[in-house]
Specification:
heterodimer; A: ABC transporter involved in vitamin B12 uptake, BtuC; two-stranded antiparallel ribbon; 15 helices; 6 strands; about 70% helix; globular; B: about 500 residues; alpha/beta; Rossmann fold; 3 domains; 6-stranded mixed beta sheet; 22 strands; about 25% strand; elongated
């Protein structure tokens, strides 16, 4: 058990350090950043805002981590958010309860995920193309559901999911933390995590070892669709309306970025949901720095890009290797770092 | 005729090491002008590595390459082309959407006033190809012509660029009979021009048809070079497969095979393997022998469901069963250690422990994880039983040596407690110690009553452990050897005889 905690800490250490560094940057530009107050039965503060605003990306990156672990990618999550938000809104507008709306939206999200998984696992379409279909068509579907308008609603139950609190903590935070814990527990306490990693590392070997790779691939896309639907409901609830055009726009890219910052390889294999969640928080903290620094908004995207490039450079294997060599050559007896070399077997 | 001249290309003691493996061990090779020299050997014998050292794709770790008596060290394929060594691969390395003329002169097009002189280029291309007896329209895109024509264009380009040595790496692998003749006529013409040609192929008939001499490689060493005029196919097969042809005495207990376990009737798949019948009994090792491409791997994969059979039926202890996928097969307690360990066997980044329990866990389903204690118990037991050398069960399997990886794969399948174990090339690319241990393990499993099917290119090995040997050729079964008939000599004869018959 202790060794497990140790190896997890070792895994997420780079992400933790980067997160702390970015949070410190926030503190430099806005000294009150870490102040948290309790007012009107709710926690307030910039740190809480980061956790709250980061909820959609955090939710998306839970599913995205699993999809990427199988060597896939899910570009449709932003559009699925719009579909789910529109579904939930139209259900409450029709006079049903918020529970029905939530379940309906989650079912629709899971169905979208199932569709993606079916295209990838059974029709063998490349994931990037298969999910591009829904990325493009999804917003159209959402518009059909909202009939082209921004569908507003006043159902307090549904709004609570996006803007309410639970024991003082904003509901979105509770939702993403809980879902993160549940999914992590499910994949790590069952064999699901290992089998997903096996598929991502070597699908041919996995199939020959008897792993039902098709079913598992459908599963991960389904989970991704489910997470996207939850994120979509939260975003819609937050603005009390479903905006088919803008809900979750470009968020798929933030989710992929969170997974990458989390140190998960886009080539599939070993994954850590916890590290991805830290990645999502890093992205949100970067957004927060830009906002708090008071720079004109036209700088936002450029600065975000620069910060992210810096983060990725620090994590790049080439830089890591160079640092290693640097450190090794500084020592009196350098342990010759053998670069991992793939043995090319002679195939004739 | 060739030996009176001095060699155009000479390799002296070429060595190439990969981490943990010697790919080439002091290889000598002499190429004379005007000869076709076949380079033979099973997969992994070192043919590709040798070629790559010659063409500069790899840097050699030892030895000398002499071209016209001068030492050369090509650093890249362009480099070796300039020196005069051209290469044509099985997969045509040209641009199918460009015209034939453009493909021939890409990078050195005749220019006029800063533009490509199209008409001149087409005329040059036409003349060039006419020398090879090829009449085609050089203005047409390459892809409109057959693979054979494309192959000839590739040869023409290589000869134009280099002109001393031409290396043909399986140029005929995807050609039909007439197309092969077209390529051969071109080779004859080049031979007459005085080029030295290296010809790599798995088709022995073609070797004897076109080549003057042949060098056989095995495990990175030159086993021998022969003038083909006075050599038979049997001699060559013997060189390729057997270390020595002394037959080992069968010191194993007389085969007392038990009840029939598996019975395959008319089992096969169109384009993959001719339908075959096969019976395997408990406590029996059935060996599959044959040259590369004879259908050894295809047979294994069909039975395991990795390739879906489209005809025939399979019976397990008399009951009809379906073998549509590996999962089906595993459900019937089949197991397969595949030939391509790296791509079909190990899951490189997973730990040794995870690799051992993978098949068992997959059969249990993801929602019923094996308890931690059970996993450790299994992993440790197999590491001990098979003497797997590792620093830790947590290390990724890709860091282990080939022999240890193979043992982990065996452990993976033994952990599922199989009744029928298929091993495809279980000893390929592993060290001598692990080799002997795996053979001993096969014997032990047989004595315990397991049914085994073992495909191998190591004939002595097959002779040592098989109770029956089935010889394959051209994707069909040609001979079954039993009891005292099982000798390396008999297997070689069975493989080569058929080839003679085919050649007539």
């Amino acid at each position: 058990m202790a060794s497990q905690v140790h190896s997890t800490m070792k895994r997420i250490m780079p992400q933790l350090i980067i997160l702390i560094a970015v949070l410190f940057l926030n503190f430099l530009v806005f000294p009150d950043f870490f102040r948290i107050e309790f007012q009107n039965g709710r926690l307030f503060g910039n740190l809480i805002d980061v956790l709250n605003r980061g909820a959609p990306t955090a939710l998306l990156c839970i599913g995205m981590t699993l999809v990427i672990a199988t060597k896939g990618i899910d570009l449709s999550v932003g559009a699925v958010m719009a579909i789910a938000g529109a579904t939930a809104a139209s259900i409450v507008v029709d006079g049903h309860s918020w529970q029905t709306a939530l379940l309906g939206a989650l079912a629709v999200g899971a169905l979208c995920g199932f569709w993606n998984g079916f295209l990838v696992a059974y029709l063998r379409i490349q994931p990037i193309v298969a999910t591009l279909v829904l990325m493009v068509a999804g917003r159209g579907i959402a518009q059909l559901i909202t009939e082209g308008t921004i569908l507003t609603f006043l159902n307090p139950g549904l709004i609570h999911l996006g803007a309410g609190t639970m024991v003082g903590v904003p509901t979105p935070i509770v939702i993403w933390v809980l879902l993160g814990l549940i999914v992590t527990a499910v994949v790590r306490k069952t064999a699901l995590g290992m089998l997903i990693e096996a598929i991502g590392i070597n699908e041919s070997s996995s199939r020959l070892a008897g792993i039902n790779s098709r079913v598992l691939i459908v599963c991960v896309y389904l989970i991704s669709g489910f997470c996207a639907a939850l994120a979509g409901v939260i975003v819609a609830a937050d603005i009390k309306g479903a905006d088919a055009n803008n809900a979750g726009l470009w968020l798929e890219l933030d989710a992929i970025l969170a997974v990458v910052i989390g140190g998960n390889s886009l080539l599939g294999g070993r994954f850590s949901i916890l590290a991805s969640l830290l990645g999502a928080l890093i992205i949100q903290s970067v957004n927060s720095v830009i906002l708090l620094s008071g720079l004109p908004p036209e700088f936002n995207l450029v600065i975000k890009a620069l910060l992210i490039i810096a983060i990725l450079v620090i994590q790049s294997p080439t830089v890591k290797h160079a640092l290693y060599i640097l450190r090794a050559s500084a020592e009196p007896t350098p342990p010759a770092p053998a670069p991992v070399q793939e043995v090319k077997e002679g195939t004739q | 005729m060739a030996s009176t001249q001095s060699p155009v290309l000479e390799c002296k003691g070429i060595s190439k090491f990969f981490p943990g493996a010697i790919a080439l061990d002091a290889v000598d090779l002499k190429l004379y002008p005007g000869e076709v020299h076949a380079l033979l050997g099973e997969n992994g014998a070192g043919k590709s590595t040798l070629i790559k050292c010659l063409t500069g794709a790899y840097r050699r770790d030892g030895g000398m390459i002499l071209l016209d008596g001068e030492e050369v060290s090509p650093r890249s394929t362009q480099d070796s082309q300039k020196l005069g060594i051209g290469t044509v691969y099985q997969e045509v390395n040209l641009l199918p959407n460009l015209t034939i003329a453009e493909n021939l002169f890409l990078g050195r097009q005749p220019m006029r006033g800063g533009f490509i002189a199209q008409r001149k280029m087409h005329a040059m291309a036409k003349d060039l190809l006419a020398e090879f007896g090829l009449k085609v329209n050089p203005a047409e895109p390459l892809e409109t012509y057959s693979v054979a024509v494309q192959q000839v264009v590739a040869i023409a380009r290589a000869v134009e660029l280099s002109g001393k040595v031409l290396i043909l790496d399986e140029p005929t692998a995807s050609l039909d009979r007439d197309e092969v003749q077209l390529v051969f006529s071109v080779i004859e013409k080049l031979k007459a021009r005085g080029l030295a040609i290296v010809f790599i192929t798995h088709f022995l008939d073609q070797v004897f048809e076109i080549s003057d001499r042949a060098t056989v490689l095995r495990n990175g060493r030159v086993i021998g070079t022969r003038e083909l005029a006075g050599t038979t196919q049997t001699d060559i097969v013997t060189l390729m497969l057997g270390r020595q042809l002394e037959d080992r005495i069968h010191d194993r207990a007389p085969s007392e095979a038990g009840d029939t376990l598996i019975e395959l009737k008319n089992f096969g798949r169109r384009g993959v393997m001719e339908p075959f019948d096969l019976t395997v009994r408990k406590g029996e090792v059935v060996g599959l022998a044959g040259l590369l491409g004879s259908g050894r791997t295809e047979t294994s994969n069909l039975i395991f469901g990795a390739i879906h059979a489209d005809q025939g039926e399979a019976l397990l202890e008399g009951q009809r069963i379906s073998l549509k996928s590996p999962r089906d097969a595993i459900g019937h307690r089949f197991a397969l250690c595949p030939e391509d360990r790296k791509n079909d066997g190990i899951v490189g980044d997973l730990s040794v422990r995870e690799n051992i329990i993978l098949a068992l866990q997959a059969r249990q389903g993801w929602f019923r994880p094996l308890p931690k204690a059970k996993i450790n118990e299994l992993a440790e037991a197999y590491v001990k039983a098979l003497d797997i050398r590792l620093a830790s069960l947590d290390m990724p399997i890709r860091l282990l040596s080939g022999g240890n990886q193979q043992k982990v794969l065996l452990a993976r399948w033994l952990a599922t407690n199989p009744s029928f174990l298929i091993l495809d090339e279980p000893t390929r690319g592993i060290d001598v110690g692990a080799h002997a241990e795996i053979i001993a393990l096969i014997e032990r499993l047989r004595e315990d009553g397991m049914a085994l099917l073992v495909a191998s290119s190591e004939l002595e090995e097959l002779v040592a452990y098989s109770t029956r040997v089935i010889v394959l050729r051209d994707r069909r079964q040609v001979r079954e050897l039993k009891g005292d008939e099982i000798t390396t000599a008999n297997i070689v004869t069975a493989i080569a005889d058929e080839q003679m018959a085919e050649a007539v």
